[in-house]
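To illustrate the input format used throughout this study, we show a single complete record. The first block contains the structure-token representation of the backbone; no residue identities are included at this stage. The design step must infer an amino acid for every position from geometry alone.
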């Protein structure tokens, strides 16, 4: 997680430095308040010097103003970094997802990927934009407070330090449990996302088969499972915070009792005891805050592990180091020679076995056969979504493995059995094949696909939003849009 954070924050090092400087200044100002409190009591109240009291209080007001300004600078810059880094991380994960082959998505679920891209990155945003800053601030206050405790009273400080193991132990014990439960909770949320995505996208089938009650029961079980895991995580985190608070503030009460007797015996001044209690409260509050933030850090660690799983995945289909250019002009000669292939998800079943096919330029060929014969597989291999286990596929005489996959796919236009329509306008859906195409070219492609007639009847014509997956069109109209897209690809 630290390696990923350093990598993400590196481009914004100046803002990081500014935030750190503000954090140090704010911590120093907070610690200086204790010294001001000591001076006010010992040299103002106890000595009965109004002028000294006025000067001390004025100095404290100045310190508080510095504290407020430094806190603003720290809070704004840290929050900015959290938002900026999260945006960068989401873009990075999404761009990496676009490089992964269909085989990777076959092994996973869309809802889980969406959860990793949204909920998991939000966990990291919370750490960078809040929790990490709080942890660093309280760590500085803890170190500074302990140093000033020792300079104020060695005896009381030794008693304070003796209680540290009592505080650290529950942090370690409960912290590990919180981390395990955090990862399990994120997995449950991902399962919810998968089920929601699947049900909503197939709502027509759900309702056509009257499956609503069964879906309600199944989703209810998933929700309760997610709640149970979250409840265990929250309970462990609550125990962690409660245990730390009880031990820390119990220790402060004990120190106050011992210090009070030292003041009465003349071994310690009232101002020194007040300053000691102030720093002890700072230290106690810092330890309590750190224990609470520890849970956030554990959750973010689990989220980071899940994101790193995606980022560490390397696509099996990559362009060769020295990719050869496809012959120009394109002729369209296709040659499958001795192709055998099994899908990674179905290694025991051959999708193609010693398959041979030759298509001449300008020739029209239809592949006909029963379901599962391998017709779609031929096109998956032709687009190089997969590589065959044996044999060679050539386009215009060039083996596909020697070409850049992106250049290869630009040579083809695809109209799938289930037309893919995006939640965008008619023009944007057709222009998906060529984003730089002019309106006239889009209209010509739609006319060639016999789609212009029904497009003209849409409320806003070519600018009509088609809804998610083209829900506002009939099946045949979606096919026409897909054909127009393929024609525009040329």
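Output of the design step:
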């Amino acid at each position: 997680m630290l390696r990923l954070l350093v990598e993400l924050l590196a481009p914004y090092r100046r803002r990081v430095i500014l935030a750190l400087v503000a954090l140090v200044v704010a911590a120093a100002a907070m610690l200086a308040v204790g010294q001001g409190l000591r001076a006010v009591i010992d040299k103002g109240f106890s000595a009965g010097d109004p002028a000294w009291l006025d000067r001390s209080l004025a100095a404290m007001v100045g310190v508080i103003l510095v504290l407020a300004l430094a806190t603003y600078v720290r809070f704004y810059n840290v929050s900015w970094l959290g938002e900026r880094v999260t945006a960068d991380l989401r873009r990075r994960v999404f761009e990496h997802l676009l490089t992964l082959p269909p085989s990777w998505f076959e092994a996973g679920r869309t809802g889980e990927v969406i959860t990793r891209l949204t909920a998991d990155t939000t966990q990291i945003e919370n750490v960078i934009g809040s929790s990490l800053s709080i942890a660093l601030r309280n760590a500085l206050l803890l170190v500074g407070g302990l140093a000033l405790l020792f300079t104020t009273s060695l005896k009381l400080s030794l008693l304070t330090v003796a209680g540290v193991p009592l505080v650290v132990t529950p942090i370690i014990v409960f912290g590990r449990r919180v981390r395990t439960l955090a990862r399990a909770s994120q997995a449950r949320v991902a399962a919810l996302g998968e089920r929601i995505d699947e049900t909503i996208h197939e709502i027509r089938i759900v309702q056509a088969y009257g499956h609503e009650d069964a879906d309600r029961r199944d989703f209810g079980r998933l929700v309760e499972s997610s709640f149970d895991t979250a409840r265990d995580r929250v309970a462990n985190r609550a125990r962690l915070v409660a245990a730390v608070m009880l031990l820390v503030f119990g220790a402060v009460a004990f120190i106050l009792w011992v210090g009070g007797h030292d003041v009465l015996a003349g071994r310690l001044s009232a101002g020194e005891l007040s300053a000691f209690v102030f720093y002890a409260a700072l230290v106690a509050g810092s330890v309590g805050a750190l224990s609470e933030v520890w849970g956030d850090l554990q959750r973010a660690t689990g989220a980071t592990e899940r994101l790193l799983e995606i980022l560490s995945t390397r696509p099996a289909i990559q362009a060769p180091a020295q990719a050869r250019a496809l012959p120009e002009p394109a002729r369209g000669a296709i040659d499958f020679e001795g192709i055998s292939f099994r899908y990674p998800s179905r290694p025991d079943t051959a999708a193609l076995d010693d398959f041979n096919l030759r298509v001449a330029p300008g020739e029209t060929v239809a592949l006909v056969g029963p379901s599962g014969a391998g017709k779609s597989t031929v096109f998956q291999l032709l687009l190089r979504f997969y590589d065959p286990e044996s044999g060679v596929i050539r386009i215009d005489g060039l083996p596909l493995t020697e070409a850049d996959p992106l250049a290869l796919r630009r040579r083809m236009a695809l109209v799938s059995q289930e037309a893919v329509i995006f939640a965008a306008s008619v023009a944007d859906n057709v222009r998906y094949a060529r984003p730089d195409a002019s309106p006239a070219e889009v209209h010509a492609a739609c006319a060639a696909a016999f789609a212009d007639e029904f497009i003209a009847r849409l409320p806003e014509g070519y600018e009509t939003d088609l809804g998610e997956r083209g829900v506002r069109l009939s099946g045949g109209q979606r096919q026409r849009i897909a054909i127009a897209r393929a024609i525009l690809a040329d």
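Structural context for interpreting the output: The chain has a mean pLDDT of 81. DSSP finds 16 helices and four strands in the chain.
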